[in-house]
Amino acid sequence: MSSTPRLKAAKRDWGHDETGCTVLHIDMDAFYASLEVARHPELAGKPVIIGTGTRSVVSAANYKARRYGVNSAMATARARRLCPDGVFLPVDIDYYRRMSRRIFTEVFGRVTDAIEQVSVDEGYMDVSSALMRWGEPSAIGAWIREQVHRRFAITCSVGIASNKLVAKIASTNAKPDGMLLIPVASQARFVQMMPLRGIPGIGPALEQRLNAWGAHTVADLADMSEETLARATGSALSARHLSLASHGLDERQVTPRAPEKSIGAERTFDTDTRDRDRVCGLLRWCCDDIAASLRRRHLMARTVTLKLRFPDLHYATKAHTLQQPVDTASALYPQVTSLLDAMLGSGREGHGDASERRRASSNPAAPNRPEAPQPLLSRAIRLAGVSASGLEPISKTVSQPSIDDLMEEEASSTGTTTSARLRDAERTLDAIRHRYGDQAASLGA
């Protein structure tokens, strides 16, 4: 669900000259919520909000719910106060991804293979090679909208322009369930009527910096030199991007099947916790989920990153680059727990250190003591997550066995290493889950 501002004045007829307008941006309307209504027709006409739990956030809301002020990333508890009659549903990401694949394959793929999917619910198309068959880009956009609605009972919005930037802004302002063509001759005028946040990539922090330099609209940016923009942003690269964008220009090409940069998983605890074992249990699930995704996509990762969110909603991250690329939870998890201890350590709240408790438990003559408490982190955690990056196809990955691996392999009666056996075990889990569902089996401690 996009939070990019839209202007009513922008949703108008900008002309019909489609020359050079070969880039389409297609954005599903309230995708998660719309898919839920499509498979549960009894929800039609009701405010539908995706996100449950007292500490979760809204992942999506349909347009009926948005009239109550509900937006994505809003705390679900607040959404319930704003929209007490709303239908709150849990996130079913597997279903949403499956339907996304079908839409991109069964609809977009029938037009061209020059498709750049940027998220589960939006993508760009370069239709220049398809015009001989289809005639005009607007005919393609109209067909896509009709097919998505007829086949999947949801709607999408389409922006048509000469480049990715203008096409995306056009689709945003065409919402919901609309199509907007911006001819080349009108693209500068179209973009310059937007507020700063109308340019993708301009967030609150950058907006404030630009405001301090007297820029409050895209038209203001167009009047500024690149040198001034570089001083305002602190980056010559950002200045170049903003200068081009303010004139409706974009040098980026539609890149089919852009490689993924990272794969991650995270969850919010029901209550803030300092219990290290509880946090590690969640991190193990994250590693298992990520490793399964890596193997499913035939990728390996070289860097693992731990992400923590604290009760005051601040984030902290710490990363480690591995000597060898990996695709197993058994390899990721030890690295993640090391990062956790490096970030927060663990305290025992005056109960003595681990060595003291071990001596007491091993001495039968020791006086009766209460059971040793679980180790505590030095700070409470609200959310924990893991991501794997430095991704590369397994077919192109060169893995050099370590000395320890070679020695273990030579000493083993089976001629295999522990890491190899664990990898085989996780692949077996993949097969079980594929057949019986994701909850059929889990990785043990």
From TrEMBL:
Site, Substrate discrimination: residue positions: 32
GO biological process, one term: DNA-templated DNA replication
EC number(s) recorded for this UniProt protein: 2.7.7.7
Function field: Poorly processive, error-prone DNA polymerase involved in untargeted mutagenesis. Copies undamaged DNA at stalled replication forks, which arise in vivo from mismatched or misaligned primer ends. These misaligned primers can be extended by PolIV. Exhibits no 3'-5' exonuclease (proofreading) activity. May be involved in translesional synthesis, in conjunction with the beta clamp from PolIII.
Description of how the protein assembles with itself and partners: Monomer.
Annotated family: Belongs to the DNA polymerase type-Y family.
Designated name of the protein: DNA polymerase IV
